[in-house]
Amino acid sequence: VSSKPPAGYKISHTTVVPDTVSVQGPVDIVKRLAAVETVPIDVEETSGVLKRSVRLSADGKPLSFFPDQVEVSITVDEEEINKDFERIDVKAKAFEGTYTVSPRSAYLRLTGPKLVLDKLALSPDQVYLDLKGLGVGEHSVPLTFSLPPKVRVVQQKPHRFRVRITKLGEPSSR
């Protein structure tokens, strides 16, 4: 490989077929060979699977190979990372009544593509309490998430929130 994958991507898998070749050349050089390299392969603009028929490189030594080419398959995937979000304010979404919530913040660890998580700032529309259909009183409510594709929650503290609804709002007429 002669270059790095695009930012936010990584080489996740490489296969070479055949995985062994015959080498001819001076005995002292052949005896010291542990591996044979290919000519460089550029993956700078690659994502997904790159397949190439590639010549083997003698690296300036008097060697010959059979076969002298191999089929290389390189898989370039999005780099996945974890990102922690501490003290996220916990609020209800689209609720017209009066309520209190305890605790008032949450900790989340999300995992997903590096390019997405590096830029992600969670908004109240993405992490919220859904109080629809709940009446006056105490309730144990989980968080609701509306996250970008391929982003998921791997850790959350706490898992549920104590909500006390003291007054229901008037449904708005449209």
Can you tell me about this structure?
β10 (127-129) and β11 (137-145) form a beta hairpin. The longest helix has 6 residues, at 27-32. Helices cover 6% and strands 50% of the residues. The chain has a 4-stranded antiparallel beta sheet with strand order 1-6-4-3, with no helix packed on it. It has a 4-stranded antiparallel beta sheet with strand order 8-13-11-10, with no helix packed on it. A 3-stranded antiparallel beta sheet has the order 7-9-12. It is mainly beta and 174 residues long. The mean pLDDT is 89.
- Poorly predicted runs are none
How far do the termini sit from each other? Answer: 61 Å
Strand segment tally: 13
Chain-averaged pLDDT: 89
Question: Approximately how much helix is present in the residues?
Answer: under 10%
Rg (C-alpha, Å)? 28 Å
Q: What structural class do helix, strand and pairing data support?
A: mainly beta
Characterize the main sheet: 4 strands, antiparallel
What is the topology, as strand order, of the major beta sheet? 1-6-4-3
Shape: rod-shaped
Beta-strand level of the residues, as a percent range?
A: over 45%
Could you give the order of the helices and strands?
EEHEEEEEEEHEEEE
Number of helices: 2
